[in-house]
Write a structure and sequence with these properties.
Layout (H helix, E strand, L loop, with lengths): L5 H13 L2 H13 L3 H25 L5 H8 L1 H33 L6 H17 L2 H21 L1 H4 L16 H15 L5 H4 L7 H25 L2 H4 L5 H7 L10 H31 L9 H15 L3 H29 L20 H19 L5
Helix pairs in contact: 1-7, 1-11, 2-3, 2-9, 2-11, 3-9, 3-11, 3-16, 4-5, 5-6, 5-14, 5-15, 5-16, 6-14, 6-15, 7-14, 9-16, 13-14
């Protein structure tokens, strides 16, 4: 029995691939690729197909375990060292996303509220979300992601004369170097999709849900970037920090609905919070897999506060996140594109010990064997009951 349905995994994939990417990655793509910025989404998506394929092959070997469990059960010592590196990586992603949504809320919704207070309010929401477990996050995804997609995809019906197709000219003369640079920036955000195998068991993260979610997320990104080019224009788009919010501001249904952007923002913020909740959940789950006797729910608050501090220490303003995207893509390629192939080559299910045939039946196994069997029993129980709380 699978823990999650295909629809839930698809929506979760769209959430991880699209939500944070929409904030200001289209600006960087348009800055380099100009009118062919939508190409960058397709190129980045093609590159992400390779680690998805490797993850699917790897998850077949561990159908009842998430990737964090598989790493520790296959190589207890080296696996924990690798998880420590991934813990730092997940912490930086959480700090980056928290800083992005904090600045967005300050600019759009709460300009008079101190940014420290806004970030604390966001952190409080994220902590309760992560403590509820992956089930709570998936339930929120089933509400926020469809609402956001329907809202943004129905916007072209109301733009009308605001769409200018001359912004796409020339159609067949792309700047290859600019498209490559734009794809480089886009990949650093869209690669967050690879976080899902770390928290989902192999029976849930199957080929159908993974590829369908990736396809829908890519098509959605291409449509949104195209709309931003046609409505806002490439010269202005390449100079905005929040192009999707500016796209919503261009929509005026009537004299009484001239602030439709507030409605779009009210749907966007919960979606971004749900994505950052996944970041905090995977951080707490990583600590739990590293130290078996630690209750993961107790680590949500400390890890959340640590990420809160890092969001201000690492990024003093949104401009630093904007500039850091070039170097950050190198890290994402190393750990989310190349490392899945390394894990696919190295990780194998741990066989039963041959010493069982030579020891009396009542003799205890060593602590490592007990730990592996305990992890497997926990994951199998979670798959049967549908619960995956920390």
């Amino acid at each position: 029995m699978k823990q999650f349905t295909t629809r839930q995994i698809v929506l979760l994939s769209v959430l991880m691939e699209v939500s944070i990417t929409l904030v200001h990655a289209p600006t960087q793509a348009a800055d380099y690729a100009q009118q062919h910025a939508y190409w960058t989404c397709a190129i980045a998506a093609i590159l992400i197909c390779f680690p998805i394929w490797a993850m699917l092959k790897l998850k077949r070997r561990f159908p009842d375990q998430d990737l964090l469990q598989a790493i520790v059960s296959s190589h207890p010592m080296l696996g924990r060292m690798l998880l420590a590196v991934y813990l730092i990586l997940f912490l930086i992603i959480f700090a980056r996303d928290l800083r992005i949504i904090t600045d967005l809320v300050e600019v759009v919704l709460l300009p008079m509220t101190p940014i420290v207070v806004i970030s604390l309010i966001m952190l409080l929401t994220l902590v309760f979300m992560a403590k509820g477990g992956i089930r709570t996050i998936v339930s929120m995804t089933e509400f926020t992601v469809p609402a956001l997609i329907l809202t943004l995809l129905t916007m072209p019906l109301f733009f009308g004369h605001n769409i200018d197709f001359s912004a796409m000219r020339p159609f067949l003369h792309p700047d290859i170097g600019g498209v490559v640079k734009g794809s480089w920036r886009m990949l650093g955000y869209m690669a967050d999709l690879i976080i899902l195998p770390f928290i989902l068991p192999g029976r849930s993260y199957n080929a159908r849900s993974a590829w369908l979610g990736h396809l829908i997320g890519t098509v959605f990104m291409i449509i949104i970037v195209l709309l931003e080019e046609l409505v806002i224009g490439v010269p202005i788009l390449s100079r905005l920090f929040y192009p999707t919010y500016e796209l919503a501001r261009q929509l005026q249904l009537s004299d009484f609905l001239d602030r439709f952007d507030l409605f779009v923002g009210a749907l966007t913020v919960p979606t971004l919070l749900t994505k950052i909740g996944v970041d905090l959940y995977v951080i707490s789950l990583t600590v739990k897999r590293m130290f078996v006797h630690i209750f993961g729910g107790l680590m949500v608050w400390p890890m959340g506060l640590l990420g809160y501090v890092c969001s201000f220490m690492l990024f003093s303003n949104i401009v630093q996140i904007y500039d850091f995207s070039r170097e950050w893509t190198v890290v994402m390629i190393a750990f989310f594109v190349v490392m899945p192939f390394v894990l696919w080559l190295l990780l194998r299910p741990k066989p039963e010990k041959d010493s069982e045939h030579h020891k009396p039946s009542g003799e205890k196994q060593d602590s490592t064997g007990q730990q592996v069997s305990t992890n497997q029993q926990e994951s199998q129980q979670a798959s049967r009951t549908g619960k995956a709380n920390l």
